[in-house]
């Protein structure tokens, strides 16, 4: 039995998956197994994995009907196969640093916690979205800091497997973009109250394959579908993407919503390329909130 089971969900990104797997070939620590959850890929992923040879054990798992179901249901395919003490949830478009497992283990052996590793976007100097994401959420904190549980994302995270099994994985009813990690993080916190520690030393590297227009569309989809779903499931969780600002009738929040106007957003999008980096991040943050609001507003009509 391996010390780590590494759960990797993948859908139609074979080249990135190959890079990810190559990164696990060079790990300084060898006591692990990969559970590769293929979510209906049609790009030759299954054919490649059927003949691929690596110096580590890996198991390929698919949906019985071979169709795409979304990242949460794909990850949950691993539930019946996990046998390790620790689990790492890792995205297939990230290449792990050689000491990723070693750094996660160092923290987990010293503290009963969730070890939230870093993801470093190698295109952050040329991609405005990569630069923005590189400075949000957990990245506002220092290595070793305990961070709010709702900043947990499952791109690169490690914790004891029993917690994943006891709460039966991620919410499989969430199949569209956005909020799946946040719902999972909040449910973990409500059930176990585990501290989430930012472990910047357990790093992976990725080049983001999307830009701001795609991300804004995804944020509208999140606002229209998964945001109201999570709020209905956890009405007390108003910190979720500042949901209180969207529903509160307080004067400050009503005034804030006055700034979520189409013409202001159009102007903000137009000037993004012209802005200094620090200001640009704030403008993008406004636009993210605006698009979440648009999605939620349209779903409430």
Describe the structure.
This protein is of the alpha/beta class and 301 residues long. It has 2 domains: 4-206, Spore Coat Polysaccharide Biosynthesis Protein SpsA, Chain A (Alpha-Beta Complex); 212-300, no CATH class. The chain is 42% helix and 18% strand. It is built from 13 helices and 9 strands. The longest helix is centred in the C-terminal third of the chain and has 24 residues, at 277-300. It is globular and about 55 Å long.
Helices and strands, with pairings:
Blueprint: E1 4-10, H1 14-25, E2 32-38, H2 45-51, E3 57-62, H3 71-76, E4 86-91, E5 95-96, H4 100-108, E6 114-121, H5 128-133, E7 146-147, E8 156-160, H6 161-166, H7 180-192, E9 196-206, H8 212-224, H9 226-233, H10 243-247, H11 251-258, H12 262-271, H13 277-300
Parallel strand pairs: 1-2, 1-4, 2-3, 6-9
Antiparallel strand pairs: 4-8, 5-9, 6-8, 7-9
Helix pairs in contact: 8-13
How large, in whole angstroms, is the Cα Rg?
20 Å
Low-confidence stretches: none
Structural class: alpha/beta
CATH H-level homologous superfamily name of the largest domain: Spore Coat Polysaccharide Biosynthesis Protein SpsA, Chain A
Overall number of structural domains: 2
Which H/E pattern describes the elements? EHEHEHEEHEHEEHHEHHHHHH
Question: Briefly, what is this?
Answer:
This protein has 301 residues and is an alpha/beta fold.
Can you give keywords for this protein?
13 helices, globular, 2 domains, single chain, Spore Coat Polysaccharide Biosynthesis Protein SpsA, Chain A, alpha/beta, 301 residues
């Amino acid at each position: 039995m391996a010390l780590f089971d590494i759960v990797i969900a993948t859908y139609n990104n074979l080249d990135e998956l190959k890079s990810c797997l190559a990164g696990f070939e060079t790990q300084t620590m060898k006591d692990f197994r990969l559970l590769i959850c293929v979510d209906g890929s049609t790009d030759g992923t299954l054919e490649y994995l059927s003949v691929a040879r690596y110096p580590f054990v890996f198991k390929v798992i698919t949906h019985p009907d071979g169709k795409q179901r979304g990242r949460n249901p794909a990850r949950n395919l691993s539930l019946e196969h996990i046998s390790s003490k620790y689990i790492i949830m890792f995205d297939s478009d990230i290449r792990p640093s050689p000491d990723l497992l070693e750094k996660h283990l160092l923290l987990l052996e010293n503290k009963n916690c969730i070890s939230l590793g870093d993801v470093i976007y190698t295109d952050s100097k040329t991609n405005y979205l990569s630069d923005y994401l590189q400075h949000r959420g957990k990245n506002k904190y220092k290595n070793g800091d305990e961070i709010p549980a709702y900043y947990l994302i499952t791109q690169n995270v490690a914790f004891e497997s029993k917690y994943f099994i006891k709460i039966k994985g991620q919410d499989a009813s969430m199949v569209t973009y956005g909020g799946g990690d946040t719902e999972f993080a909040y449910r973990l916190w409500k059930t176990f109250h585990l501290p989430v520690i930012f472990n910047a030393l357990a790093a992976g590297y990725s080049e983001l394959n999307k830009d701001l227009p795609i991300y804004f569309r995804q944020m509208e989809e999140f606002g229209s579908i998964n945001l109201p779903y999570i709020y209905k499931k956890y009405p007390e969780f108003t910190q979720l993407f500042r949901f209180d600002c969207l529903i509160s009738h307080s004067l400050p929040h009503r005034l804030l919503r006055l700034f979520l106007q189409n013409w202001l957003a159009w102007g903000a999008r137009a000037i993004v390329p012209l802005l200094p980096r620090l200001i640009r991040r704030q403008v993008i943050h406004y636009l993210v909130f605006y698009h979440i609001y648009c999605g939620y507003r349209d779903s409430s009509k």
